[in-house]
Fold these 4 entries.
Entry 1:
Amino acid sequence: MDKIALVVGASGIIGSNLAQELLANGWTTYGLARKPNTEIAGLQPVAADLLNETGLETALADVAPTHVFITSWMRNDTEAENIRVNSAMVRNLLSVLSPKKSVQHVALVTGLKHYLGPFEAYAKEGVLPPTPLREEQPRLPIENFYYAQEDEVYAAAERDGFTWSIHRPHTIIGKAVGNQMNMGTTLAVYATLCKETGRPFRWPGSKAQWEGLSDVTDARVIAKQLIWAATTEEAKNEAYNVVNGDVFRWSWLWGRIADWFGVEAVGFDGTIHPLEREETFDQTLWGLIRRRSNLVEADLNRLVSPWHTDLDLGRPIEVMTDMKNSRKRGFTVFQSTEDSFFDLFKQLREDRLIP
């Protein structure tokens, strides 16, 4: 049977890696975004705004996917607005596809804010969950746009009869430009600027994150899990955490990253030093580096997301993730976290995004 994928958010870290994995496995693959990715060979771009249902109908008129992968979301000023906007995006998409009767499976990517709370209450005292984070942990008693997105998928599945899967990654490590949450590239640019100025590569986060155990999710790993869940009968209609499969302490990995860039590592010194401070990422200095090294991206803000890196590295608890739900059903992909970062840094250098 033909496998026709619609990747929603195909320009992002997860979506672009997923599109490449699908194409490599012989899927007919459409990539939907407001500004579609045209750099992936074989990906059929679909330009659409998920908040414009009429425009969405027009854009998808000739597309009848068997599998839908939702990797996109939009950040807003309040959680109430996050809920309104992001639930509408999922609802509009599935409503437009409903009359086609082609959809067999819908996969939704959310994340660990399912357990740690939304941006307005993220990892705050009073809502801190026990770790490792497990799929069976109940929803927090606070509003969360991830819950609203899930509920839209559940409602559409009941209406249209397709199966579903929910995927909850930790911090995603992979290449994307213009992404809202991009720790790997943010740290690469930070280290590059430290080297240029002679500043130390100083740990920006909390003591708990510096000393505690952690894990991350390689974009290539979640791409494989998304396809596995969509094509494995016993994997359907379940929620899955997804991380690399190893654990580490930042107190170890920080020095390894510093060595890769040839800068001096400085660990936790008793104070949090947010990367979002204005002087950390100097656009003028980046312009000088870009011109000297012939880099391709002039806008520093399209490479870094310090607000999100600060959010993750500043958490007051260690965070690691249990993957038993997919492991016991046969998903055994493993990725070294150290290699995730180093592979990314090499790719950024090869693509002339960092010197």
Entry 2:
Amino acid sequence: MKSKSSFCAALLAAALAISPLACIAGGVSLGATRVIYPAGNKQVSLNIANSGDKERYLVNSWISNGATDEKEKNFIVTPPLFVSEPKSENNLRLMYIGAPLPTDRESLFWVNVKAIPSVDKDKIQGKNVLQLAILSRIKLFVRPKTLSMQPEEAPSQLKFSLAGKMLTIENPTPYYITLVKMKLGDKALDSTMVAPMSKASVAADAQGSLTFQTVNDYGSLTPAQTQNLR
């Protein structure tokens, strides 16, 4: 268990924010790396599994706002707090109870899940103990049901322009698009997420063709695309 927990913690520290992990701590994992919430639905579910043989975890979950990162009062998470037993599975129910969101584009929120390992009080009595709580965050997209295109069509609509040492990415679609494994010529660029009907810029001190991949609804990478920049 120690090696597995250490491996998960190391991955969490090294991972990009746009590529969240299913692993939370030890044998605890989420059933998805992102959640799509169809607007108008009463709720969606997120599975949490504990594959460990012995460890119990106190699991605390909440939704935060994509813009301010503050706790979102318009979402209810049930149960917000529970004990994850060894070799068990639980379902979180996520319910939006707020005012209608924009109907022409996705809205972004974050699902936060914190796992706190249990402690045997008899074994630690009289000792100094450092207890670590591991927090995992995955994206939650509230998606209107009548958007102008399918999500798999969105990456092909991106527009790119290079000025000086900055690459600007324009997203005219109603979807959030995450670009990863970007390279301009032979130089790797930072990954980024572009909001619907918005622009984002990344440092690009290079020349040549741009290659990139995007992340789909299932957390998988799409085939690489190439753009010739002038």
Entry 3:
Amino acid sequence: MKKHQLCCIGHITLDKVVTPQSTVYMPGGTAFYCSHAIRHFNDIDYTLVTAVGATEMNVVKQLRKVGIDVTALPSRHSVYFENIYGTNPDDRTQRVLAKADPFTASQLREIDAEIYHLGSLLADDFSLEVIKELSLKGLIAVDSQGYLREVRDTHVYPTDWTDKREALRYIHFLKVNEHEMEVLTGLSDPHEAARRLHEWGVKEVLVTLGSMGSLIFNGTDFFRIPAYKPAQVVDATGCGDTYTIGYLYQRVSGIGIEEAGRFAAAMSTLKIEKSGPFNGNKEDVVHCIETAEEMF
């Protein structure tokens, strides 16, 4: 059984985006944005495990066509998000019109990797059993976003992570934003929240703070990572996923925490400057770090 350096596991979504001007259909999800971002770095063994309905197999074919190693598990449906925006772009109504089947431990038994990044979109995508099983083979990375979203009758509701106190014991890397850290810990100070999450078992806590940069805590030291000012803000969708996959790429390559954080931050800046997934290369990221204005 081949051991990959980095494996992302997650559903690819079909996103329906409705604005007063248009209705657009596009693929999305953590698995989609992470895979497209990391494919530009050819010095890493990366694989994607996804589960999609028959209607989205064309997206899998496109990923394979650009060189991404993909295992596509069968699912009755793909995840189907509908986002309706009013004239105010902050006014959004979100529904889930279809859900994909959750991942199971037995489906993932033959996948071997140094780091497993679980790209959860909804609270029931990955059971506690899956996290435990995978943690026996490699390090677990999680973006908390999906664990805090529950679907009832197509509508999306915020929720707390049901098994968080047990699950976090098995998680090495956890990425949260300001809102998510507060939901999980009840604490509004990033330093206090990071300490609490570490006490609960997380080895490296990544707290993203938007234009204020990010904070990474490894149980001993806090690393303050700047945000890099973008030339223009075009599309923020997938920025969190880009940050996480950039960080994991650096860490699995043997890079230290602070340098990995800066690399991840620069990747996010380059992503936000253009529509769609990150499509730069390592030289672009280094250039951004060296020349862009730092924001704290």
Entry 4:
Amino acid sequence: MDNLFDIFNSRSNSTEINIEEEPSNSKCFCLPFTGADFQVKFLKSMFEYFKCLTVKRYNTVKNEWVIINKSFNIKFINGWLVSIAGLLRLFQNLQKEHPRDLVLYTNRTNQDCLENFELQLC
């Protein structure tokens, strides 16, 4: 989950960004999103994880754990599915217009930044 939060909160880096392979350090997902293989592979694996996630609740009457059907209707799961698919699609669409050297600083796409941006436009 730490890596998922990092990939959605990437910021500019003082060093030049050139990601061909997964960097060796543990905070490689803090780097801006460039569509590198390791970034896309990670996002797709997290998408599958959330799609297959089983959520249970404890039923005190039966004294057992019960699986909640349709766990994709749980807001945080659906939110992550939408966010992951949205980032992949946004990058894909922008890459059509800018085929080389596209870099996304995902911290600029979070709700607070968008709300502040909208306020500045008014």
